[in-house]
Amino acid sequence: MSSRRPRSVVSVGPGVVFVEGPVSNWVVLAEEDGVALIDAGYPADTDLVLDTVRWAGHDLGDLRRVYVTHGHVDHVGGLPGILERFPHVEVLAHADELDNVRGPGRQQVTPAEIGGRLAAPRTLRWLARAIGSDALRPVTVPTARAFTGADFAERAVTPFPAVGHTAGSTAYLLPAAGAIVTGDAVVTHHDTLPGSWQPRPRMITPFFTADQGAALASARALPYPEVVLPGHGPAVHRVGREWVPVAG
């Protein structure tokens, strides 16, 4: 049982549970052959991720696979602990993202690159939360493999390219829930973003992103159904022309 607690846990459709974690998010999916995750939080989130699988009404032995939006440590950090206990679980990502997922080197902002921005209190708050989530722990997922069309042939998940944040960033459409899981291609809030906290789909702070121009093009090209499930911030849905948090 984890001592960490999610900010929110909401059911957004049949078999789809969105978890707004302490610092980053993940999704628990019911599939015909078992349970899947989309992303797995920071290294310190392993137990919490598994707790949320149980909270969603599933047995941990039914966990079958993890779809990865991108290989940053706040999205794959929980995987080594999960795989240590459940080595049968598959980890799937876009072929161009495998180096980031497998690690230990990855296309990610470094402490040295962050250093010049520490004068901003919001950046300091984020950094403290990240370090408290074991962001500096080396993370490797050597068994991760590239997904193919066959991996989605009979599943209610459809990958959608969202390159720019990283080389192989991927969003996942969940048609039955009218939702899209965006990873960091689009977020609804992040500690480092300036301005109002009002949650809405927006770009993450540019220094986290490998290619801002490509990321902007990807964000504009994403299909936006009724519900957006971001990598950071609450789940939101459309109400008229506005986006509002999904009620828990």
From TrEMBL:
<dbReference type="InterPro" id="IPR001279">
    <property type="entry name" value="Metallo-B-lactamas"/>
</dbReference>
<feature type="domain" description="Metallo-beta-lactamase">
    <location>
        <begin position="23"/>
        <end position="232"/>
    </location>
</feature>
<dbReference type="InterPro" id="IPR050855">
    <property type="entry name" value="NDM-1-like"/>
</dbReference>
<protein>
    <submittedName>
        <fullName>MBL fold metallo-hydrolase</fullName>
    </submittedName>
</protein>
<dbReference type="InterPro" id="IPR036866">
    <property type="entry name" value="RibonucZ/Hydroxyglut_hydro"/>
</dbReference>
<dbReference type="Pfam" id="PF00753">
    <property type="entry name" value="Lactamase_B"/>
</dbReference>
